[in-house]
Amino acid sequence: MTSDITNDEESSDRQSFRASCDQIREFASNALIAAGTQVEASRSVANALTETSMRGVDSHGIRLLLHYIKVVQGGRINPGPKLAFTQTGASTGIVDGDNGFGHHASYFAIDRAVAIAEKSGIGAVSVINSSHFGAAGSYVLRAANKGYVGLGFCNSDAFVLAHDGIHSFHGTNPIAFAAPVPGKEPYLLDMATSVVPWNRVQDYLMEGLPLPPDVTVDSSGEPTIDAAQSAALLPLGGMLYGHKGAGLASMIEVLCAIMTGSPYCSSLPAMKGPDFSTPRHMGHFFLAIDYRRFVSPQTYEAGMHAYLHDLRSQPSKPGRNVMAPGDREWLVLEERQRLGIPVMRQLRMELDHLADHLSIQRIHYDE
Amino acid sequence: MTSDITNDEESSDRQSFRASCDQIREFASNALIAAGTQVEASRSVANALTETSMRGVDSHGIRLLLHYIKVVQGGRINPGPKLAFTQTGASTGIVDGDNGFGHHASYFAIDRAVAIAEKSGIGAVSVINSSHFGAAGSYVLRAANKGYVGLGFCNSDAFVLAHDGIHSFHGTNPIAFAAPVPGKEPYLLDMATSVVPWNRVQDYLMEGLPLPPDVTVDSSGEPTIDAAQSAALLPLGGMLYGHKGAGLASMIEVLCAIMTGSPYCSSLPAMKGPDFSTPRHMGHFFLAIDYRRFVSPQTYEAGMHAYLHDLRSQPSKPGRNVMAPGDREWLVLEERQRLGIPVMRQLRMELDHLADHLSIQRIHYDE
User: Fold this and answer.
1) Is B319's Cβ below 8 Å from some Cβ in A?
2) A143 with A149: CB under 8 angstroms?
């Protein structure tokens, strides 16, 4: 059991170059600064991208740097946002991201939510005027690393079939949840509410392989296993039970768009353009919970360890292990801390080209 | 798109007897009181069962009355619970259900959560020492009807295959979410995190029909379409993508069990016995959110109506309609308010038998 954005990256063994996490982080930060982004925002984005790559979630890791440089240079992203926090209740507040990078606004928001939770037990913070924030897991992990349970939600532009419909409507709308595991890396769930993410379909296309059944539909809404004919992802649950994935995606629209006054799925400008100059005004929603208001730390710790032990000890299919949410990520993290982050040949070429274009130092690879 | 506990009831057309909602509510309340339950708790349970039946969620409606009479008479349920609320922070609190009915404790808890949210913007209330609470939707609807966004979670005993495992581990762990829709019935999502609920499998068994693929496994963890051979439900996402449904179920264990110090899935005494005398000490978790802390009421109302209109207007497959969460429930509600709640012949016989056993008046059916 793990987030699908992680599963998505099982193919990372194709990579032949590795660079240290520090190299990647510094390069990303330097590139964003060279493209005009303010230092603090650049560091937030670089941090999110690098840590996401370290957890093995390559779809939302360093490879997104090229996209982010494009959108900050295109004008969609405000390179020098002034983040503003308005507390609207003892336990609620709104972060205005000033149309800067979503990562920057989201770290800021979850930190506010944790500070509120410290005082009142739970903090709920929305983000408005934001943009793509990378992996939702980044922000709930921040909460968990500070000792709080975190929940994070974001919508996206339309990729996923409306259940019983024939066209895409909702986004891949992720839900992320993290909780402290005393003495260990946090518990971490980070999942899109579609069956798979769009770039998984692209992987099948590149490799010329048929998709598994019940993953996508073609442009007339009929199921297809042909990646080239795929026009929309199916919501989690597929053709028969997709009302559940669609229901979760819809809940996330209510939390992130309707409840924040931000654009919902089908009215969001597409992440992939062609317009890279207009701000997207995206909304997010974060919760931080102080579990100590509900249970003694001793009982929590004992319960969490017993539950995770029982789950991981379940008899498994041959060649598989029953895993807890986050287990796969922390295995990959340990490996990548030792060996560095893998970068595909094509991505390396593009990052080298970016370095030259921005007149910054190229990434140094371990060769 | 709708909750699966609702879909589960499409077969309710088999029913040939109808009784008014008031009849059902009064009968349930009288039966619980006659079985020794205190008046207020009886009314809570009767209300939850009746409203759940009215929404078409028959699996969690009046047919559960027989079970609840059995467990209150067996001693599992405290017939005269003293509910206690301890506020543990400006925005958090714990309800001790005193091992009475879960419905009673859960209405009490969501009312506390709403009262807190009224003051501080969000309220988080856990329930401990509770039991089966029926449909999770009942409590978030209470929040929405008071003008607040509600979220509710509950775990259950082990019914669902551990992803990559061969035996059941997690419960069907529902998530429920409701939000006000000004001028209309609330937005309502109420779904188990398994592909289908267990009683759907029982329906296929009774009708001698093969199951759809990717819904259950047999006792060795192999997929089966034979209801009689089914030993565990698959988590939402099925064999390939069940890490997502399992991840959601697991998140709900953390919120309801680990974070409340209550038993988790595999350590919960089975709802269906054989032990009906030992309290189950179940935990639940509820949130109420004041959306006005994040958006103006005007913007919220306009956004909600625009979003729901767009969703419902999506081009659909022949013979289907794209629906919003709750649409199906409110259609059924309207019908059942007019025509009454359908009761199957077998259930009618059992309820009549119960009436005689408890020396209370039988339900009057419209014939």
Assistant:
1) no
2) yes
pLDDT computed for residue B206 by the predictor: 86
Q: Best residue in B148, B259, B284, B321 to probe A by mutation, most A CBs within 10 Å? A: B259
Cis omega (within 30 of 0) on the bond before B263? no
Contact B121 A91 (CB under 8 A): yes
Contact between A95 and A105 under an 8 Å Cβ cutoff? The reply is yes
Q: Which residues contact B129 (CB under 8 A, 6 or more apart)?
A: B96, B97, B98, B99, B105, B279, B281, B282
Largest CA distance in chain B: 55
| pTM, 2 dp | 0.96
Task: Assess B157–A contact: CB distance below 8 Å, yes or no.
Answer: no
In whole angstroms, what is the distance from residue B345 CA to residue B360 CA?
A: 20
Q: Mean pLDDT throughout A9-38?
A: 85
Restricting to B residues 53-112, those with a Cβ less than 8 Å away from any Cβ of A are: 88-94
Q: Which of A215, A259, A268, A282 to mutate to test the interface with B (most CBs of B within 10 A)?
A: A259
Longest dimension (CA), chain A: 55
Nearest CA to CA, how far is B162 from chain A (Å)? Answer: 7
pLDDT for the residue A202: 87
Give the pLDDT confidence of B9-68 residue by residue, as tens digits.
Answer: 444 445 579 999 999 999 999 999 999 999 999 999 999 999 999 999 998 999 999 999
Rounded to a whole number of angstroms, the distance from the CA of A360 to the nearest CA of chain B is 41
Q: Tens of pLDDT along A61-120? A: 999 999 999 999 999 999 999 999 999 999 999 999 999 999 999 999 999 999 999 999
Cβ–Cβ below 8 Å for B304 and A91: no
Residues of A with Cβ-Cβ distance to B258 under 8 angstroms: 179, 295, 300, 303-304, 307
Q: What pLDDT was estimated at residue B323? A: 97
How many angstroms separate the CA of residue B141 from the nearest CA in chain A? Answer: 14
Domains annotated for chain B, with CATH where assigned, are 4-195+234-358 (3.30.1370.60)
Vertex B123, ends B118 and B128: CA angle to 5°? Answer: 135
Positive or negative, the Cα torsion across B252, B287, A52, A147?
A: negative
Cβ atoms B216, B231 nearer than 8 A: yes
Using CA atoms, how far residue B229 sits from A95, A130, B205, B222, B273, in Å, is 53, 51, 10, 10, 21
DSSP-based helix, strand, coil % in chain B, nearest 5: 45, 20, 35
Structure confidence at residue A3 (pLDDT): 40
332-361 in B: which are within 8 Å (CB) of A?
A: none
CA-nearest residue to B299 within chain A is: A261
Confidence class for position A16, pLDDT limits 50, 70, 90: confident
Q: How far apart are CA A126 and CA B297, in angstroms?
A: 16
pLDDT digits over A311-337, tens only?
A: 999 999 999 999 999 999 999 999 999
Rounded Cα–Cα distance for residues A64 and A66 (Å): 5
- C-alpha A45/C-alpha A40 separation (Å) is 9
| Residue B259 near residue B287 (C-beta atoms within 8 A) | no
Q: What is the per-residue pLDDT for B14?
A: 59
**Residue A40, SS3?**
helix
Question: What ipTM did this prediction achieve?
Answer: 0.95
Mean per-residue pLDDT of chain B: 95
How many Cβ atoms are within 10 Å of A33's Cβ, its own excluded?
18
Residues 6+ apart with CB under 8 A from A87: A93, A116
- Give every CB contact of residue B262 below 8 A, 6+ residues apart in sequence: B128, B256, B281, B282, B283
Q: Looking at this protein, which amino acid is placed at residue B20?
A: S
- Print burial letters for A4-31: b (CB count within 10 Å at least 16), e (below 16): bbbbbbeebeebebbbbbebbbbbbbbb
In chain B, which residues have pLDDT < 70? 1-15
